Every structure is written in C-alpha cells, then in structure tokens.
Amino acid sequence: MSLNSQLKGFKSGVVNQGNFAQARRHIASPAPAPQPSPASTPGASGSGGNSSSNAAAIAKRKKPVKNNVVYSQPADTGMGQYIMTQVLHLVEHLKEVEKPLTRADLEKFLAKPLDSTMIEILRSHDKLVYNPAADTYAFKPLHNIRSAQQLLTHLQASTTAQGLSVKELKDGWSGALATIDELEAEKAILVTRTKKDGQARMVWINDKSLNVQIDDGNNLFFFYHGEVR
C-alpha cells in the first residue's frame, strides 16, 4: 500500500471516530421511571382522604331509618289492657251515680257480661266497696259524706282545728258545693274561699257556743269566732 493510501485511510478513521463520539454525545438519557402520585399511593394522605370520603358516603347510605313511633300510649293492646280499661269505666260510672250497683247493673252499662277476671279485680279494687250480702259494688270516696247531716256530724266529731278540704268532699259527692253554700248561709259552718273566684276551699263547724255578746251599757259587742262585730 502506498503512502498516500495509508494517509487517506488514517484521515477516514479519524473522521469516523469523531462522528461516533458526537453520536454518543447526542444519545438521549433514558427517561426516569414514572413515580406513583400521592393520590394513588397506598397509605398516602390523598388515598386516605378519598377512602374516608367513600366510607362516610357508604355509612350515610346505610344509616338506619329513624323510628318515629310515638310511645305516648302503651304498646300492649292485648286482653289485659282491654280489661283494665273496662274496669276504669265501671269505677268512673259508680263514682257518678253515687250509689251501689249490682252485677247486672254493671253488665247493662258495659253491654257485655263480666268475666271472672273482671269480677276479681272489682272486688279487690281500692276505690270500690263490695257488699257480698247484696252482691253490689259502690264507689269509695275519701270521706263517706253525701249529705248535709253527714257533713255536720263529721265536722262536729273532728278533734282538730284543721278543717275539711272541699276538694276531698267533692270526691264522690257531686252535691258538695251546693250543700256547703246552704250550710254557710245558715251559719252552720265556716268556709274559706279563694280570692280569685270565690271557690270554697276549707270548711269548719260553726260552734255557736264560742260566740259571746258583751254589753258595756252603751254598745253591744258581738264576738264571732274572734271577730268583733
């Protein structure tokens, strides 16, 4: 090979090496691997937020429906409640009529026969009095008073000065107020009344032996239970 041929080959090799090096310089570096976003990374705050929101939404959809049942009435509507309702009607009826009634009278009022359970309840009821001889039932008031004479007898036998409550007298005695007004007008009893509407509240016997007349020669004083008139 001639010297010129060797020189051309050398130059060609130098040029090719330079192109190769430049080519190496322009080779793009590999792209970095994509990193998972915080929202898709398990345990990340974004994922936790979405998970909490989804759980809350599911819980809201599964929230039980509120029960709006009103418990103002007993839930038991069975035979026991029915019997006690009937007994209550009979007690109120006996209170209103203010006299003993037979079993037949009570059955007529209810328009149905009394069974053995109702009979047992009526005979042991604390607001009723059962008379086995006559087989009658009567309402038992707080005070066994249903007339003017019975009221006067009760007040005269009282050993205290507390008086008798009109509210208690009205329990089982519908004519209590009218009788009190009559006895007060006759000065047979003393009555205290409410200031608002004048309703009778308490009654006492009017013991006329305590009324004393004093004549000083010029004026006549009349002491009426502590009051000078």
Key phrases:
15% strand; Arc Repressor Mutant, subunit A; alpha+beta; 229 residues
Describe the structure.
This protein has 8 helices and 9 strands. Among the domains are: 79-139, Arc Repressor Mutant, subunit A (Orthogonal Bundle); 148-209, Winged helix-like DNA-binding domain superfamily/Winged helix DNA-binding domain (Arc Repressor Mutant, subunit A). α3 (79-97) crosses α5 (116-123). The strands form 3 sheets. The protein has a 3-stranded antiparallel beta sheet. Strands 4-6-5 form a 3-stranded antiparallel beta sheet. Mean pLDDT is 76; it is low at 23-27, 43-47, 69-76 and 220-224. The chain has helices at 3-25, 45-62, 79-97, 103-110, 116-123, 148-157, 166-169, 176-185; strands at residues 101-102, 128-131, 136-139, 164-165, 189-193, 200-205, 212-215, 220-224, 227-228. The protein is flat. With 229 residues, the chain is of the alpha+beta class. β5 (189-193) and β6 form a beta hairpin.
